[in-house]
Amino acid sequence: MNEAADRVGWGVSRGLVAYETAVRAMETRAAAIAAGEEREIVWLLEHPSLYTAGVSAKDDDLLAPDRFPVFRTGRGGQFTYHGPGQRVAYVMLDLRKRGRDVTRFVADLERWIIGALASFNVDGEIRAGRVGVWVERKGPGWAREDKIAAIGVRLRKWVSYHGIAFNVEPDLEHFSGITPCGLSAPQFGVTSLVDLGLPATMDDADAALRDSFHRVFAQTEDAPPLA
């Protein structure tokens, strides 16, 4: 068995990557993986501020349609925000050699994020019926659950693309232009590592994500980013 050949590429883009550029690059790479022409890769990047709508998005959940560009995408999920300070990790993995089990794959993505959060002594949790990772927060007379990471994936010929959005230090006020994941009740909000009082950098988050990825999915090696 060639262990090096089984390693997943790990590419990091510096600077902001346009959403359209990222989607084209992901689709091209996913097709090449399905054809056996390229290896699997995790691509880490940041986007300029924008909103994306998944296949379950409801128009009423776009509260400020003129605030940032809006992109309709074929990933799972509803509306979400991307922007500077948020680590987006696009995951192009071949599920044909990973059990062809979409439910398990999404659960593994959740475990990956939870493992990364544990590096910061943050207890990430999942909730039935709510894809993503949540942090329970309490104070005198109040309690709520804040989302710290979103998940939205798409499969083509059993190869995944799109992935996760992990809040390191984005402007959380930008989430007010949408109803994130369709949840408008006051007990649900959004948070980030810095909002939780952790002076984490993007490099800190990347290191935690990579270490957790090794435990959940596979070993990685540095690879050129897709754009």
Please provide a brief summary of the model:
With 227 residues, the protein is of the alpha/beta class. It is 21% helix and 33% strand.
Write up this protein.
- Helix content is 21%, strand content 33%.
- The chain is an alpha/beta fold and 227 residues long.
- Strand 8 and strand 9 (142-156) form a beta hairpin.
- Helix 2 crosses helix 3.
- It is globular.
Helices and strands, with pairings:
Blueprint: E1 8-16, H1 19-34, E2 41-46, E3 50-53, E4 70-72, E5 79-82, E6 86-92, H2 102-118, E7 125-127, E8 130-139, E9 142-156, E10 159-167, E11 188-190, H3 202-216, E12 220-222
Helix pairs in contact: 2-3
Low-confidence stretches: none
**Main pleated sheet:** 9 strands, mixed
Radius of gyration: 17 Å
- In which range does the helix fraction lie? 10-25%
Q: How much β-strand is present in the residues?
A: 25-35%
**Overall pLDDT score:** 93
Structural class estimated from helices and strands: alpha/beta
- Compute the number of helices: 3
Q: What general form does the structure show?
A: globular
Topology, number of strands:
12
Distance between the termini: 31 Å
Order of helices and strands: EHEEEEEHEEEEEHE
Provide the descriptors you would attach to this structure in a database record.
12 strands, nine-stranded mixed beta sheet, alpha/beta, 227 residues, single chain
